[in-house]
Amino acid sequence: MKKQILIAAISAGLALPALAVPNTFTAGDAIVAAEMNENFTALENRIAVLEARLGINATFSEMIGGNTYSGQFIYFGYFGDDDFDTGSMVNNSGDGFTSPYAVRFLKGGGQVTMTFESDGTITNDMGQESESEGLLVGACTDYQAETCPSYSNDMQTYSDSWNEAAPSSTWSVDDSTGIVTIVFDGDPDDTEQFKVSGDGSVIYSLSYFNENDGMREVENSVVILTRD
Predict the structure, then answer these.
(1) Phi, psi (5° rounding) for residue 166?
(2) In this predicted structure, what is the pLDDT of residue 55?
(3) What does pTM read for this prediction?
(4) Cα(200)–Cα(193) distance, rounded to whole angstroms?
(5) Of 51, 65, 192, 198, whose Cβ has the fewest other Cβ atoms within 10 Å?
(6) What mean pLDDT comes out for the span 68-97?
(7) How far apart are CA 163 and CA 125, in angstroms?
(8) Cα–Cα distance measured from residue 182 to residue 20, given in angstroms and rounded to the nearest whole number
(9) Is residue 69 exposed (0-12), middle (13-18) or buried (19+ Cβ within 10 Å)?
(10) What backbone phi and psi angles, to 5 degrees, belong to 22?
């Protein structure tokens, strides 16, 4: 097994520390058990370093901590009734989206880079995203559910970018399941969970969930981050 680890390390192009065991012997020297044990201990320590670099026998926390992950995300969602606006298209009053004939939607995506520090904080949080929002069915301009003289899909677009050297976001991972939890900007209500691959090289998420914020009822998202 140890030989296989060394071969794997060389195949992966890893730079090995210079060989240095505490004791050397020449022909005719007496072999002392304590000196041989010291050599074996030194070799075991060197192998442990290689295993850590390769992610062998390392915990998820050890594989993630201190590394930077970069990747992409996409999402789309549907809006239901707006609890913050009591208008009714059916009754031709106000400007709320309560009509069964008009449902808002959004779609967006972007890129992100984050460094997962060993102390559980996230630094070098950089990224950009763009988003489009509109109506699946054109909104009647006079807010009646009957036949309308004209329609508008009310399409809107947004874009955003960020470069935060030391945000208040934190991360943690369950070493038994590989579930990564990120709390963005210290807000417990803005928490998302991801999965880490067995070797720690990829953090990903494929989610489908309902939100109870009164506006966005269904959202789907895909996030794939790879270790730099």
Answers:
(1) -145, 70
(2) 61
(3) 0.63
(4) 15
(5) 198
(6) 63
(7) 6
(8) 42
(9) buried
(10) -65, -25
